[in-house]
Predict the structure.
Amino acid sequence: PAPRRSRWGIVGWEELTDGSLVAGQPIGAPTWFPCNDRPDDRGRMRMEITVDDGYTVAATGVVGATTRRGGRVTTVFTSGVPTATYLAAVHVGRYRTTPLAGSGAGVVPAVTVAAPPALAAASDRAFSSVPDMLRLFDRLFGAYPQEACALVVTADELEIPLEAQGLAVFGMNHLVPAAQRLVAHELAHQWFGNSVGIARWSDIWLNEGFACYAEWLWSEESGGDDVDACAAEHYRRLATKPRDLLLVDPGPDDMFDDRVYKRGALALHVLRRRLGDGAFFDLLREWTSAHRHALVTTDDFRAAVDRAGGADAVDLLSRWIDREALPNLP
Ligand SMILES: [Zn+2]
């Protein structure tokens, strides 16, 4: 297995200063295990990972048996939920794994943090809001849909955090208060993207627009800018950017373009204003429960919007996702 160069940068194994990780999204998975690397081909997985003693491995799935032999440690991870190949991940480093304070109670799942001991205090601080985030998302999106919730912090800086099934990885540079929105974003992917999964990459806004909207919801909940202010600010910025992107099919070069994220979140916000909070969050919870660990397309979302708000609401959504022109923000 070797990393692969792609139009989205290098994917697959990445060597860290003292460890390694594997980044699957969007086409890195076949560089480290044999698979049909399509988002609509999900499977349950069992991984058996052997590392040198002194290193810890975190991976997608539930941690099972650990055995030591000849200076090496083998750990088994089992995913009982259908997992997209791009959401399989392995992280190896000199990590200490600890339960996150305040997790594993009520609606908040048990969260484990794997971090270098030197970053333990900073990680605890950075993730101290995670139980509140998970409570908020439980209320707005429905019950946490994954078997595990692992947060990994690398001793290296990472360009971006990355979600995986029941897991998210952050660089040491993401432990600052300004990166809290990214923690909310990656957690929200456990509902949008990892449980409710896109059947084709062209529908990526169903992952990223929703996760971005979750950032705004958390901002308001945590006493930062409210969602209206976030929407207004990002609308203003979006208005200065080229209008040559179709949300419903941004194309491979633009699939991770920031406009997909922000315009997707704005589409949800205008829908919320049209439907009202009650109907809008009912729609989101119905979306996550009807398609729990299942595949969706944008047309499935149109159908859900139709049930919630009728043809007017579908037309409103269409103005944001099927056209390049930027509609007015009501
Ligand atoms: Zn994302």
